[in-house]
């Protein structure tokens, strides 16, 4: 991979959001079908991705995986995400991460840790975090 690619200072906001979802999904070293489907549906349906070329989803996901595989990749990718997202999309990024983590109805410790690192890096307040988590919990509740 080119050094300039790895050292990018910013990503388009939509690509940063995809990086968030991929990082959460891959945090337990396994991207399962439910999580991949959730990412695809989110990109296909949410207004924030309206101008994103859906055919680039796989490429952007692979770029994220390559970034994460580099030395200090996790921390550097989180820094890149934080630098790339305007503050108004910080809660959106966290919401998408929580959505992907919940999509398989099983939250794993690695996913919870990734979400904690994400919310710390994005400097989200506790009330926002609680509201997002409660909303996703309500949507994914089973009988």
Output the helix-strand order. HHHHHHHH
**Gyration radius from CA atoms, angstroms:** 14 Å
Structural shape: globular
Give the helix proportion (percent range).
55-70%
Annotation, overall tally of beta strands: 0
The total count of helices amounts to: 8
Q: Averaging pLDDT over every residue, what do you get?
A: 93
> What structural class do the secondary elements suggest?
mainly alpha
Measured between the Cα atoms of the first and last residue, the distance is 47 Å
State the assembly state of the protein chains: single chain
Sheet with the most strands, sense and barrel status: none
Describe the structure.
This protein has helices spanning 3-6, 13-26, 33-45, 57-69, 73-84, 90-102, 109-121, 126-139. It is mainly alpha-helical and 143 residues long. Helix 2 (13-26) packs parallel to helix 6 (90-102), helix 4 crosses helix 5 and helix 6 (90-102) packs parallel to helix 8. The longest helix is centred in the N-terminal third of the chain and has 14 residues, at 13-26.
Throw out a few tags for this protein.
143 residues; mainly alpha; 8 helices; 0% strand
């Amino acid at each position: 991979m080119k050094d300039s690619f790895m050292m990018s200072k910013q990503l388009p906001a939509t690509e940063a959001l995809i990086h968030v979802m991929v990082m959460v999904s891959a945090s337990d070293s396994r991207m399962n079908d439910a999580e991949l489907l959730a990412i695809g549906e989110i990109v296909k349906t949410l207004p924030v991705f309206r101008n994103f070329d859906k055919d680039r989803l796989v490429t952007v996901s692979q770029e994220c995986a390559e970034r994460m595989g580099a030395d200090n990749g996790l921390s550097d990718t989180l820094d890149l995400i934080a630098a790339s997202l305007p503050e108004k999309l910080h809660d959106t990024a966290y919401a998408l991460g929580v959505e992907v983590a919940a999509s398989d109805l099983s939250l794993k410790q690695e996913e919870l840790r990734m979400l904690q690192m994400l919310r710390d890096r994005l400097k989200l307040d506790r009330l926002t975090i609680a509201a997002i988590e409660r909303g996703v919990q309500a949507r994914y509740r089973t009988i």
